[in-house]
TrEMBL record, chain A:
Molecular-function GO terms, alphabetical: ATP binding; ATP hydrolysis activity
Family of the protein in this entry: Belongs to the ABC transporter superfamily.
Domain ABC transporter positions: 43-284
Native species: Goekera deserti
UniProt name for this protein: ATP-binding cassette domain-containing protein
Record-linked InterPro entries: AAA+_ATPase (IPR003593), ABC_transp_ATP-bind (IPR050319), ABC_transporter-like_ATP-bd (IPR003439), ABC_transporter-like_CS (IPR017871), Oligopep_ABC_C (IPR013563), P-loop_NTPase (IPR027417)
GO biological process: peptide transport; transmembrane transport
SMART domains on file: AAA
NCBIfam families: oligo_HPY
Keywords assigned: ATP-binding, Nucleotide-binding, Transport
Region annotated Disordered, chain positions: 1-27
Automatic annotation (TrEMBL), chain B:
Alphabetized UniProt keyword annotations: ATP-binding, Cell membrane, Membrane, Nucleotide-binding, Transport
Membrane topology: Peripheral membrane protein
Residue ranges of domain ABC transporter in the record: 39-289
Protein name: ABC transporter ATP-binding protein
Domain of life per record: Bacteria
Family: Belongs to the ABC transporter superfamily.
Record InterPro entries: AAA+_ATPase (IPR003593), ABC_Ni/Peptide_Import (IPR050388), ABC_transporter-like_ATP-bd (IPR003439), ABC_transporter-like_CS (IPR017871), Oligopep_ABC_C (IPR013563), P-loop_NTPase (IPR027417)
Organism for this UniProt entry: Goekera deserti
Biased composition (Polar residues): 1-11
Amino acid sequence: MSAPTTTGRDPGAGRETHRAAGGVDRTGEPILSVRGLEKHFPIKGGGLIKRTVGAVRAVDGLDLDIHPGEVVGLVGESGCGKSTTGRAILNLQPATGGSVKFQGKELVGLNRSQMRSLRRDIQIVFQDPYASLNPRLPVFDIVAEPLVIHGLTKDAKELRERVRTLVETVGLNPEHTNRYPAEFSGGQRQRIGIARALALQPKLLVLDEPVSALDVSIQAGVMNLLSDLRDELGLAYLFIAHDLSVVRHISDRVAVMYLGRIIEIADRDELFERPAHPYTQALMSAIPLPDPRRERARQRIIISGDVPSPANPPSGCRFRTRCQKFAHVLDDGRRETCMTVDPVLEDRGAGHLNACHFAEPLKVL
Amino acid sequence: MSSHGATAVTPSSRSTGGLTAGGTRATSLPGFDASAPLLEVTDLDVRFPTEDGSVHAVRGVDYSLRSGEVLAIVGESGSGKSVTSLAVMGLLPGSARVTGSVRYRGQELLGQRDRAMSGVRGKGVSMIFQDPMTSLDPVYKIGYQIEETLRQHDRSLSKKAAGARAVELLELVGIPNAADRVRSYPHEFSGGMRQRVVIAIAMANQPDVIIADEPTTALDVTVQAQILEVLQTALQETGAAMVLITHDLGVVAGIADRVLVMYAGRPVEIGSVEDIYYEPRMPYTLGLLGSLPRLDAPPGQRLIPITGSPPSVVNMPPGCPFAPRCPLHVADCDVAEPERLLVGPDHTAACIRTEQVAAAGGDAHAVFAETASDAGLVGVDQTSPAAPEPEQSEHTGGPTGTGSVVSGVGSPTTSTGDRA
């Protein structure tokens, strides 16, 4: 287990969620390194012979590094490929291109049995706590299953002890482990899912919308639990969510996805204070603040239309069809650039990586 | 933002010649008259008989909607907010037992036959549902579905005039190429576009009241921003008042004039949007606001969860339904369910300890101490004190601990061990 890089937390600062964004050591080897990840789903034509007539480019060239103990938030709207990214990293849906290296070991192309041993170190928590737990197994069996599969416990007594510890770690009453998932509320079920993911003491957790199915009062408890676990166990998270305020709360770094690619990535505070890509700006501006005076005084950027189909993304910059800058600010010559040149993810003077030819930091909040 | 006093266009100024406001419609222009509520719900009570006992989904909801006003009903899932509005519209299944009174401009709606209700639905009170994927009929063209609503309430309207009005409505809600798109089927539209169509249908007959049940919940946030704009347009164009049902406190902050907070089937706090956000008096409201991750708060500030989960509404025990989760709980809370008491001008809260909440000055950290556990079980164990939360003895319950009430999770190692 990789140790947290900063220690000596003042107990009085217990209200801090976790160490500041800059506290993660990013000089060493990343625990997870994704390069040019692609996941294309073939579109089959009609007729007897199902020929492939195209592809839904759900993930289309994605680069991402996660360092030990780091929380990287991955945000985007539905259909942008963020969940597919998470699944492709775990090989639950094999990638169709690119490379995923976990601690230097290539994961793309591994078969199921080769993957199995690696799953000890990478685990996933799914979005829907009602669908991701087997309703016919008592909670004990659900949490114990990974330990049994990987043969990590010697005897029944040790297994009981470990399950008990896990269930306590996630804030549930260990006396309830003989019950079935149906007897638990949504928030509690999500805690069971987290306990199951922690059973093998992984180094990286992929959290796929872990709180979006929960009511806000319950969501807060699960968020705090995730923060605590990360601090105590030194876990790295890939935190996938559609809600920027949730991602901002927990992440060290935030990556914004649009149509299968990351279009901006930066340290949390940098991204939220100086978003440079027009999409990030619009996304932030669209989130209503729960503060009537501020909310009503705000200037809002409203982008038009919906996300285009990933089967047929626009030429050049993928965001240009909805871009407020493309529509209202740029002249024809610059628009030509947007239409023909696909912007790569690089630092364009904003101090962090973004994929917009004409990126300019703007204070939105 | 606020819609009363807004530039409500007179009903006829936008509509085509054939469409006038219609007979049942009294003035819904900005002139704000508190004495004549548009919609008055009194002591509304809804029970669903089930094998396990009667599910008391709505227990005594009272509110009145004034002309031009936006009333937000907020609450978590299962709090009865949707059932309340379905009861108002007369859309509950026959097995539901509904009592109380729902008056639309003085006319009692409860107990009306479906036929009579059809005259009110869409015309007096119209509704926008949550899921735009299922609230349009997949086998009819968009244009037809709008025309149908128009002609239902105005038999003299020609097909041609209705068609023209449909195009106009689609333009109003921001659908490009409206003249062509009326011939599309719902599946050809994206979610956001469908919700625009649903809004167009809801505003087609210039209703007095629009009830919007989670109108943006199924949509992405950038599309939500678009739809909220369209809703504002709809309100201005029709001059209608709106009941907005949502769980999103951000949406409420932007659009509502008054807020009704529901918990376990009852309104627990009603007040102006400023009262609710800046001076909440019911611990639940305070807790709800404290549990939100906010874009405008310093990052890294700890969220404040409300422990436990909402009670089951089957065979509820006496006493305040929030008491098992409430940090300010005292023995008196279990005696009887508190009435809503006046805590400020036009601001009521159902709590016997509102002074303590007031003393916190809107700081949820001061009232809610935190525990890492979530040990209570749903169902039968709900009411028994499944988790005698350790913080009950520890929290200060007053303003003394402003923001620094350190609970068991203060140090990283204790959160696993601080449970009973």
